[in-house]
Every structure is written in structure tokens, then in C-alpha cells.
């Protein structure tokens, strides 16, 4: 039996803001008389909004009211209400994530968009979502190639590399089409890193001067060469390290990229070069697309057409953020949904020793205080080392010894395990606590330190819950 859930993706990028709504189909793929195996079997975009220029009040502030107006109008156009949504993501990306009120805007939209829609940001997550929206993961699996997707937006280029459909590495550079802006034929804005890149190559450029095609082409050539270095097709210079967003890390040098896809607003001008009206969008995006197309290092890699280009991130956000838990789980229905829980990860080397499990919890729980007070968190572990009934009971006892602070708090005990022991582990903890404490224990979910987890209301006749694993990191 199938069940349909509706998802939203909202992407507020450096250049553009857009929404999609999608229909996600889940189904029990197990045969009769066996443990249910609920999986997502189909994802279909059912509505695409117009593409809006991201409204700004200034160079440092997003126009939150205008963003809200756009979102409300597109909900109305789609015939969707927040109450109809079961999952989704609101993400703020690229240079816009550095605006001073980015956190405030996300919280506002998260509340507007439904009980389970989540606010997410962070270059690693954005890289993966845009690549999945572009179809790069599927391409790498089908073609058996190591495929990198370059999502080239207004402020950043997000790179995700897939091997056989699995994420192998991610990276993010401050290379984008709106890092130099043009108004009335003159340069109105230059991103500091790009100015430094130009000057180090003896190209002098200033705000207020005439926008000269030849000079800007030279700068775009330098920017394209930085992308070639990033995918290991050109020798990295000393200056290259400074181009990464937030002092981020490059891709491993030993990683050999065999295929490329391009997404983001600039991608259309990589796949379909323009030959006139270079400043049609008031920036260098068209020129940057041309420079990428001509770069010798990039040309050496086999190129594939992306499924989505300018909409890749929003499609990824709306269709690829959601997982479903395993079917052997324990939960208290009235406690769901729970949003924005930081993950306390018990390392696998500690998980093997039950005393180390207790010690790890005692040591880590104080790290999750906010203003001196414990907040709701989720304990994550693999569940691979204690799988018999007796050993799960011992694991439950070790967790409770280490998590007494949670037991004594107002919050439920929430646990996410990778192995399918969620039901027996959750029930064991409930029995040990004589059902005096609410317990939510889900399985089939991988989460690491630094992640945040959202658990939605049960679906599929209560057999599974939708889960979003995300990173709430704001660029500074």
C-alpha cells in the first residue's frame, strides 16, 4: 500500500529565490508476514515557482518581509497550505547566508512553512543537495564514474563528488557570478577575494570604474582556473587555499574526477554560451560561464548535461532531504514532531565497551547546555556491537547510567541508531524506567557529531517516521 506525502523546498540564494513542491511516494516493499520495509519509491516535482531575484535591503541585510511575501504568494499559487506539508527544507545559500539577519529570516520561514519544514544551511549540505538535484549521484552510479557537480551560483561554487552514487567529498569556493556587479555600465561591487585575485595577477579594478569586457573576461578566466584547480585539473597555487568559503578544505588531491555536471544560475551559460548582452543580469555570470567553458583543465573532463541547472538546489532541498526510519522503532506519538535536535554521537570505538558508552554520555552531555541549561538532544550510535536481546538490555542500562541528566529533565530520551534495534532498545529503556519517561528510539538513520535531526509525525500507518538530518551552520 502506498502513501503520498507533500514536501516543500525553499532556496534563498545569492542571486535568486525560488520554491518547489514535490510529491513523495512511500511504500512497504516487504512481503506478507515479514517485518515491514518502508521505502521512498518515487519523488515528483508538482509545482515550480517563478524565479525571483533575492530581495535585499542592503549589502548586509535580506529583505525578510519581501521574502515572506514571495513565499506566501507562491503557496497560494500552488494551492498548498502549511498544514498539507509533511516534510521539506528551507535553505539559505551562498553569499546570502553571510547576511547579518540570515538566521532571523530562516526562523521566520521555518515557522511559516509548516510544522515539519526545517531551516538548513551550510556549504557541505548545499553541495550535496544541488548535486542530487542535478542528477549527478544517479549519473555516477549508472556510468560507474567519479562525477563532480559544480553548482555555480551568484556567490559560491559548491562541489560534490560522487563515486558509484555515494558522496565521496564536498567543497565550496567563493567563486560566483555576482561577486562583481555592474550598474549603468559601471562596476558597483567587487567581492574582496576577487579583487585580491585580480590584483595578484596585475589586474587593477575598482568600484565606480567603467565595466570593461576585456578586463572582466580576464578576471573570469582567473576564476575559472580556480575551479580547475579545485577539481584537480590544474596545479594549485598558494593563493588557491584562500578562495575556499570560510577557510574550508579542498577536495583530496588523489581524487580523480572522471565526469562533470554543472548546476546553478551560471550553468546555463556553460551549457548554452551567450555571445552578446554580457551584463544582462547586472553581473559577470554570463562571462564566467564562457570562461569555464573555455578552460583547458575543465575541458579535459567528460561533461554531462545536468537534470536541473538553476533549480538544482531547490529541487534537492524539496526532494532529497527526507529519509524514512526503519520499521522497528519506539516512539511517543504526542511527542512528534521534534525539530532541531543537536546530535550527541557516541564514537564506534567507545560504543564497543559499555563502560565507555556511559562515560562518553557523562562527558558529552554538558557540551549541549544552552545558557547553562540542558536542551533537547538526540543520542546517536551505530548499534552494531550489541545486537542480541541480552546485549541490547545491557546497552540500554549503560545508556541510562550515562544519561541520567536527560532522565531527570523535562525532555524525552531520543535515540537514533543505524542498526535495526530501535524497537527492542527503546522498549528496554522504557521498562527500566517503569514507563515514567517518554522514549523515542528510531533506527535506519545515520547521524554524526555536528548534525541536527528532525523527526516528523508517523506515516505509513504509524510504522515509520520521516527524518531530516541537517547542519545548521551559518557562514561568518
Can you characterise this structure?
- This protein folds into three domains: 2-120, 2-Layer Sandwich (Nucleotidyltransferase, domain 5); 136-306, 2-Layer Sandwich (Nucleotidyltransferase, domain 5); 338-455, no CATH class.
- It is built from 15 helices and 24 strands.
- Strands 16-24-23-17-20-21-22 form a seven-stranded mixed sheet, covered by helices on one side.
- The protein has helices at residues 64-78, 102-112, 123-134, 136-143, 192-199, 213-230, 268-271, 285-294, 296-299, 312-319, 348-351, 354-364, 389-402, 404-407, 422-432, and strands at residues 2-12, 16-28, 38-48, 52-53, 56-58, 61-62, 85-92, 118-120, 146-152, 157-163, 166-173, 180-183, 186-190, 259-263, 302-303, 322-324, 338-345, 369-370, 373-374, 378-381, 413-417, 439-443, 452-455, 466-470.
- 30% of the residues lie in helices and 27% in strands.
- The chain is an alpha/beta fold and 476 residues long.
Characteristic key phrases:
single chain, 476 residues, Nucleotidyltransferase, domain 5, seven-stranded mixed sheet, six-stranded mixed sheet, 15 helices, 24 strands, 27% strand, ATPase_NBD, lyase
What's a quick, concise take on this entry?
By secondary structure, this protein is α/β, with parallel strands linked by helices. It has helices at residues 64-78, 102-112, 123-134, 136-143, 192-199, 213-230, 268-271, 285-294, 296-299, 312-319, 348-351, 354-364, 389-402, 404-407, 422-432, and strands spanning 2-12, 16-28, 38-48, 52-53, 56-58, 61-62, 85-92, 118-120, 146-152, 157-163, 166-173, 180-183, 186-190, 259-263, 302-303, 322-324, 338-345, 369-370, 373-374, 378-381, 413-417, 439-443, 452-455, 466-470.
Amino acid at each position: 500500500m502506498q502513501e503520498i506525502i507533500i514536501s516543500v523546498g525553499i532556496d534563498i540564494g545569492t542571486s535568486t529565490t525560488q520554491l518547489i513542491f514535490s510529491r513523495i511516494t512511500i511504500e512497504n516493499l516487504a512481503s506478507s508476514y515479514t517485518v515491514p520495509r518502508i521505502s521512498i519509491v518515487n519523488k515528483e516535482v508538482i509545482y515550480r515557482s517563478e524565479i525571483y531575484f533575492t530581495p535585499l535591503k542592503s549589502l548586509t541585510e535580506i529583505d525578510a518581509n519581501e521574502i515572506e511575501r514571495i513565499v506566501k504568494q507562491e503557496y497560494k499559487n500552488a494551492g498548498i497550505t502549511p498544514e498539507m506539508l509533511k516534510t521539506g527544507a528551507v535553505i539559505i545559500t551562498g553569499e546570502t547566508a553571510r547576511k547579518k539577519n540570515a538566521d532571523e529570516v530562516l526562523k521566520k520561514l521555518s515557522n511559516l512553512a509548516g510544522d515539519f519544514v526545517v531551516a538548513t544551511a551550510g556549504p557541505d549540505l548545499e553541495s550535496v543537495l544541488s548535486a542530487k538535484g542535478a542528477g549527478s549521484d544517479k549519473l555516477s552510479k549508472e556510468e560507474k564514474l567519479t562525477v563532480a557537480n559544480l553548482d555555480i551560483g551568484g556567490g559560491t561554487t559548491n562541489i560534490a563528488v560522487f563515486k558509484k552514487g555515494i558522496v565521496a567529498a564536498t567543497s565550496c569556493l567563493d567563486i560566483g557570478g555576482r561577486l562583481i556587479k555592474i550598474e549603468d555600465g559601471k562596476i558597483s561591487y567587487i567581492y574582496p577575494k576577487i579583487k585580491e585575485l585580480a590584483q595578484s595577477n596585475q589586474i587593477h579594478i575598482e568600484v565606480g570604474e567603467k565595466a570593461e569586457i576585456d578586463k572582466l573576461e580576464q578576471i573570469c578566466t582567473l576564476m575559472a582556473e580556480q575551479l580547475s584547480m579545485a577539481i584537480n585539473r590544474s596545479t594549485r597555487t598558494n593563493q588557491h587555499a584562500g578562495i575556499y568559503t570560510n577557510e574550508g578544505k579542498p577536495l583530496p588531491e588523489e581524487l580523480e574526477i572522471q565526469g562533470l555536471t554543472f548546476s546553478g544560475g551560471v550553468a546555463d551559460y556553460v551549457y548554452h554560451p551567450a555571445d552578446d548582452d554580457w551584463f544582462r543580469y547586472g553581473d559577470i555570470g554570463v562571462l564566467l560561464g564562457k570562461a569555464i567553458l573555455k578552460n583547458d583543465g575543465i575541458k579535459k573532463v567528460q561533461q554531462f548535461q545536468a537534470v536541473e541547472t538553476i533549480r538544482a538546489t531547490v529541487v534537492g532541498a524539496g526532494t532529497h532531504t527526507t529519509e524514512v526510519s526503519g520499521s522497528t522503532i519506539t516512539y511517543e506519538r504526542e511527542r512528534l514532531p521534534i525539530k532541531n535536535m543537536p546530535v550527541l554521537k557516541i564514537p564506534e570505538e567507545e560504543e564497543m565497551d559499555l563502560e565507555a558508552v556511559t562515560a562518553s554520555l557523562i562527558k558529552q552531555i554538558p557540551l549541549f547546555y544552552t545558557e547553562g541549561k540542558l536542551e533537547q538532544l538526540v543520542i546517536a550510535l551505530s548499534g552494531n556491537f550489541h545486537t542480541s536481546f541480552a546485549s541490547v538490555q545491557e546497552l540500554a542500562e549503560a545508556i541510562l547510567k550515562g544519561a541520567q541528566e536527560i532522565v531527570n529533565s523535562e525532555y524525552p530520551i531520543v535515540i537514533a541508531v543505524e542498526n535495526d534495534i530501535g524497537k527492542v532498545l527503546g522498549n528496554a529503556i522504557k521498562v527500566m524506567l517503569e514507563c515514567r519517561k517518554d522514549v523515542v528510539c528510531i533506527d535506519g538513520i545515520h547521524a554524526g557529531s555536528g548534525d541536527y535531526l528532525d523527526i516528523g509525525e508517523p506515516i505509513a500507518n504509524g510504522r515509520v517516521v520521516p527524518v531530516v538530518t541537517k547542519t545548521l551552520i551559518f557562514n561568518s
